[in-house]
Amino acid sequence: MKIITIAQIHRWRPCDMGPGGKYSRDGLKALFGGRRSITPLEALDLPIPVADRFWLLFRPEIISKRDLHLLACDFAEHVQPERADPRSLAAIETKRRWVDGAATDEELGDARVTILGAAWAAKRGTSAMAAAQATAWDARDAARDTATIGYIDEKWQVERVREVLRKTT
């Protein structure tokens, strides 16, 4: 079973970790209920902002790069309107195929360029930007940035992360 320790978190350098800060050693120990470590599922339920929980969990030590990429696709799909721009849906599908090795880096790059253009044309519309962020090369950035754009439905996002964690930890 994977665990997250206070020492790990400090190596990852969170904000507000100075003396007396929410994420200082003492602050984390309090958040952890006096323990030195917690599981990723316990981390998901910490009484801290969702963005901070995702900052903690969206790293390959906790969730595999593959699952982070797919999570970004899930988040991007979730914010697509009923009549989404087909380029957004195509970019997300290209990313899913890329994750499975069925699309090349070049195809993913082309999808990213196309959807970034669409996002700018739509004045950075949420659905197009979410699709663009999902096509990022770095798994952690893709998941984190797509979640940030898609904060429209935090409860859904947290539950989706919970499903991933249950399967992988």
Summed up, the helix count is 10
- Coarse morphology: elongated
Q: Give me the secondary-structure category.
A: mainly alpha
Mean pLDDT: 90
What features would you describe in this structure?
The protein is mostly helical. The protein folds into two domains: 4-57, no CATH class; 65-168, no CATH class. Helices cover 63% and strands 2% of the residues. The protein contains ten helices and two strands, in the order βααβαααααααα. The chain has helices at 6-11, 25-31, 40-44, 50-57, 65-78, 86-99, 105-121, 126-134, 139-149, 154-168; strands at 4-5, 37-38. It has a two-stranded antiparallel sheet. The radius of gyration is 17 Å and the shape is elongated. The mean pLDDT is 90.
Task: Put the structure in a nutshell.
The protein has helices at 6-11, 25-31, 40-44, 50-57, 65-78, 86-99, 105-121, 126-134, 139-149, 154-168; strands at residues 4-5, 37-38. It is mainly alpha-helical.
Write the layout of secondary structure elements.
Blueprint: E1 4-5, H1 6-11, H2 25-31, E2 37-38, H3 40-44, H4 50-57, H5 65-78, H6 86-99, H7 105-121, H8 126-134, H9 139-149, H10 154-168
Antiparallel strand pairs: 1-2
Helix pairs in contact: 5-6, 5-8, 5-9, 5-10, 6-7, 6-8, 7-8, 8-9
Attribute tags:
elongated, two-stranded antiparallel ribbon, 10 helices, mainly alpha, 2 domains, 169 residues
